[in-house]
Amino acid sequence: MFPGRRRRGARPLLLRGRSCYSLAGSLGMAGGGAIAQERISVPGDKSLSHRALIFAALADGSSHIRGILESADIAATAQALRALGCVVPQLAGSMTIEGRGLRMLRASAGEGHAECDNSGTTARLLSGVAAAAPRITRFTGDASLSRRPMRRVTDPLIAMGAVIEWQGEEGRLPMIVRGGPLNAVDWESPNASAQVKGAILLAGLCAGVPARVREPLMSRDHTERFLVALGASVAHDDDGWIRAPVVETLPSFTADIPGDPSSAAFLVARAALSDEGTLTIRRVLLNPQRTGFIDVMRRMGVRVSFEDVSERSGEPVGDIFVQAGIEPAGTTIEAHEIPGLVDEIPAIVALASQIEGETIVRGAGELRVKESDRIAALVTNLRAIGADADERDDGLIVRGSRRPLSGRVVTHGDHRIAMAFGVLGSLPGNHIVIDNRDCVAVSYPPFWGDVGRLFG
């Protein structure tokens, strides 16, 4: 809870975090370099920043949010909400949003253009909101987003009664959503996707109709946790079904967004390759569906732990502590682990390329439909700089070595590819040129400055 008096009726949503950094120390040049007792904070969590803006716009009254990730993806969500008739100010790290409420949304006729840029979360989550509003919304994206599949989210919305029109290739942006009254739905999703699940739950919530979703494996549960924190009941049936609440209003709230664990993963991987020292990443979101990469890194031998953990409105938050000067080894990542670490695979692969043994990733076909085909991008770029890796249909194999790496990396505009090879490029003796450094602004705008200050 923020200090001082809270406006009457605002529900505190305690997700504390920071988006600035503080650090001190010296750098060594042997092996992976030496760090001192470093402390840093990463920018706010991207998933929670998206949802905080959405729920604030759908709530009744003024909501106050701090620690918002100021990135291109979150700016896209703010812009798309405006296209839906919501009043959202210019994106900032601290924002007050006057919510229109669910009833106003259901009466919000008109037309809007939701330019989603590179943000799949924006397009998919807000297509669920648009499906329930009696208006026409055109969703567009950049070249990368326009190649990503949308049928996985539009099929359940069509089953609920939404009308979807494709303006180019079927199943890809651009598309038009003609929203209006929706029907109840029970949807068995073939994919474990928090974006698909979230879109269905939001569509049911905004339309005021029952909606149930069941996934083959549990995906991130931020939408459900946020709803529960707002006092809306989300049921989890014994047979795996998740039911959205049917409510007339959502209360306004106050929230602090913690640091993004996906951003933290790249610093953890780099610290694990250092010769000595420690790194503490402060006030990071530690949702169990987001810390699978920590389990894998521990299995590889990385000394990493959580400290000062507390629960903030259903989301655990704490510090990540990394002890350098160890000798990690390769491991195998199986399909059932992928939903909990899919965005951190590039960080794990960067680590795997520099340690003893073989690391195998299986059941990760979802990586092929991210901002880039990350399986192909990782393997092709590793080979281009002199590392040993092979591509598989649904994964890859990396054989580690500490030999120097050099060459040019093609990111395909993918922020996580840029950060993975940024980790490798910061190692002493490596000479790696990254074609598009600026794409890290999608999720971690100060990444290059933070890596430079921490690791040289």
Report on this structure.
- With 456 residues, this protein is α/β, with parallel strands linked by helices.
- Helices cover 30% and strands 25% of the residues.
- It contains 13 helices and 22 strands.
- It has helices at 46-58, 72-83, 101-106, 120-132, 151-159, 194-207, 222-229, 261-272, 292-300, 345-352, 374-384, 415-425, 447-455, and strands at 11-13, 34-40, 60-66, 94-100, 110-115, 135-140, 163-166, 175-178, 185-188, 211-214, 235-236, 242-243, 253-256, 276-285, 303-312, 315-323, 332-333, 358-361, 388-392, 395-399, 406-409, 431-434.
- A 4-stranded mixed beta sheet has the order 1-13-3-4.
- Strand 21, helix 12 and strand 22 form a beta-alpha-beta unit.
- Helix 2 (72-83) runs parallel beside helix 4, helix 4 packs parallel to helix 6 (194-207) and helix 10 (345-352) runs parallel beside helix 12.
- The longest helix has 14 residues, at 194-207.
- The chain is globular and about 60 Å long.
- The chain starts with 10 loop residues before the first strand and ends with a helix.
What does the secondary structure layout of this molecule look like, with pairings?
Layout (H helix, E strand, L loop, with lengths): L10 E3 L20 E7 L5 H13 L1 E7 L5 H12 L10 E7 H6 L3 E6 L4 H13 L2 E6 L10 H9 L3 E4 L8 E4 L6 E4 L5 H14 L3 E4 L7 H8 L5 E2 L5 E2 L9 E4 L4 H12 L3 E10 L6 H9 L2 E10 L2 E9 L8 E2 L11 H8 L5 E4 L12 H11 L3 E5 L2 E5 L6 E4 L5 H11 L5 E4 L12 H9 L1
Parallel strand pairs: 1-13, 2-14, 3-13, 5-6, 9-10, 17-18, 21-22
Antiparallel strand pairs: 3-4, 6-8, 7-8, 10-12, 11-12, 14-16, 15-16, 18-20, 19-20
Helix pairs in contact: 1-2, 2-4, 4-6, 5-6, 8-10, 8-12, 10-12
